[in-house]
Amino acid sequence: MAFSPPSTHLLKFVLPTFFVLLITLFFLTFHRKESIVSAAYKEHGILWSGAQNNGIAGKKATYIKEAQEWEIDGSFDQRPLRGLCERTEWQPGLAFECLASYGGVGNVRNTVLTCVRYAIEAGATTLIVPQIRARDEDLIGLKNGKDLPFTYMFDEDHFISSLASTCPQIQIIPHLDDLSDIPSARKPTKLIPKDLGTDFRVFRVMNFASKWRAKFDGWIPKFGAPNGFSPAEPLVVSIPPPIFEFPTDYDSPEFIATFGRILRFNDHARRLAAIVLYAMNTKYNLDINPAKIGVPDAEKYYGAHLRTAIDATKAGFAPYEDQAASYLADAKKHKLSVIYLASGSAPDIVRFTGDAAVHNISTTTKKRLLEEKDEYKHALEEMQELSWDQQALIDYLVLLRCSAFGGTWASSFAWNIVFRRHVVVNNGIWVPSKAAESAKRDVGVRDEPGKVAYGDKINTIFGDDARGIWFELSMWP
């Protein structure tokens, strides 16, 4: 019988024990790391990126990363905004506070941009980062919710850095409370900018933009700061959300096309939209290049905004029958067999899906795409934690990419998507419609299915041709 020395017996016992302890330590460490990351997400809304997020790896991770960083019109051309700021006569000590914007993303985005445009026109050297007012859970009450930070919808770092590089004359202040140690800043003076004149187009869009600065300068000694103002004793002017009133055509076509780029949706929404796009691209074999900028490829998918939620119904938007008929006919016209549907009405999503199937058209939504595979489980859970308006950011980004888009005239959401897409139709230059140039239409008869209020080769806003001209006259792409 062979004899084994004591050291050999010891090794046979110690080595297995050592490996067991090592493996146990590894899993305990990994579990603790996972718990820390999960806790950070729950507290701060941080997306867990990389291979640990939904099993993303390799080509899939690259696809989603490229989709997340994508902008339909490519890199931000800062020259038009920088040129405007260089020409502006600035007033040291003048601060603008944009009061909390409310409503859907189309309204919020436009009111924030318009307020910033007023601030530049006035020569304000300080700007308070705007806040956003949450919508009531019933979707109808727009002004009764609590005020939320800018990051509720937008990328605050991008906003601040964009203005810093184009308008260095403006100091960005996170909150009005940051000026609380200055007595004159404790009592902001409210101003409704359009009240400085009486000449309007289509009853609501200013027709005196070229005179507004002079009128504002005349308002200051009478109502704003009778004793003057300075950096040491600033004048803070509070601006309520300016709803479709500043004429975009006061600025150059290049400026109109690029000014909106100071706003970008927050990374959370952009990443979830990228995952939704990946899921749709994979399911339907659409072969969508996630990084391709410019006019979207034909023959991929149709984007429809079915605006029939309870708030739209109460506001008198076109009924389901009219909207659905228009979108299905348009999808068939463009020979598209997949529709990405954005809608806040669950029953109408089911109804539309059935109506589309009759025409051999498949319908999908962000929720359906994320529900279909376990690999999207975490993304689905994250999306369901978002508010109704935050989830709309995901739809907005996916709809920007569609081959053809259809919306209804009363929806600012639809118009905003169309205008961003319209910029690339004309190679980065804003080209107004003939109706906008004449600005003769305003209100008209009841909509009829299939009638077009606005359109180009990749976009259609359905409605009577006497509807909604103020959107084109006052909405930033």
Automatic annotation (TrEMBL):
- Output the superkingdom of the source species: Eukaryota
List where the protein spans the membrane: 13-30
User: Would the keyword Iron turn up in this protein's UniProt record?
Assistant: no
* Protein's name in the database: Alternative oxidase
Provide a GO biological process annotation.
fucose metabolic process
Instruction: Give the Gene Ontology MF terms in alphabetical order.
Output: transferase activity
Q: Give the signal peptide, or none.
A: none
Any idea which UniProt keywords this protein has?
Answer: Carbohydrate metabolism, Fucose metabolism, Membrane, Transferase, Transmembrane, Transmembrane helix
Query: Which Pfam families does the entry mention?
Result: O-FucT (PF10250)
